[in-house]
Fold this protein.
Amino acid sequence: MILGKRKIKDLLAQILIYLCAAFSVAVLLLILCFVVKRGVKSVNWSFLTTVTSVRKQTVGIAGNILNTVLIILVSMLIATPIGVGAAIFLNEYAGKGKTVRIIEFTTEVLAGIPSIIFGLFGMLFFGETLGMGYTILTGSLTLSMMVLPLITRNTQEALKTVPDGYRSASIGLGAGKWYMIRTILIPSAMPGILTGVILSIGRIIGESAALLLTAGSAKHLPKTFLGIFDKIFQSGGTLTIQLYLSATSEGDFDTAFGIAVVLLIIVFLMNVLAKTLARKMSPTGKGR
């Protein structure tokens, strides 16, 4: 009798779990269908390769795409070495003392701070105190602080999954600690590190509040190729910033939903890339 009741409870729990999973998938499909239906008609070659111009009568997001790419590159160039280095220090050098607890607590607090506070700090410190103003560099420095905990924690967890036997064998063969870290540990933990990096890129792509206060909203394209480097020190609005402005200030919902479709495609491709690279770089996934 007791066994029968347990089976009924297990069955009910299983049904409830499947219903929750189905509800999550249904919500995702509803959002996707609604956004794609409203925005796909706005997405074309001209929309992706031009900028909005009243004189030329064009509506485009090429400048916003370039700004998004620049902010991603600069932010990750700053955050990735610091995050990975901090994780290596915590996992391989610091031990389990008070210093580690302080750093981990600080990282957790940093991860929980709302993005708008990062934006206020970036605007006042980088923009005003350091005199950078509303620039892509200001926004990148701000976002690098935002994604730093994500990269650090993912790298730390990835390093913990590497068997201690790898460390012992390397040291036993006469390898130095740093040589062991860069030739054994980092390659073995690379799938987890890469996942943290790509998740950080996804957060950067979707960020708007912090960038609105630090990077501005300009959407022009440089006149020359070398002008791309100058744009780092100029104002630049990302895709999310332009989506917000199109939907609120300009009331152009066709453009807003078109940008939303582009963002969905980018996020989908980023997730596929993360899964593929993690599988390819995993020791058990090579050769598949």
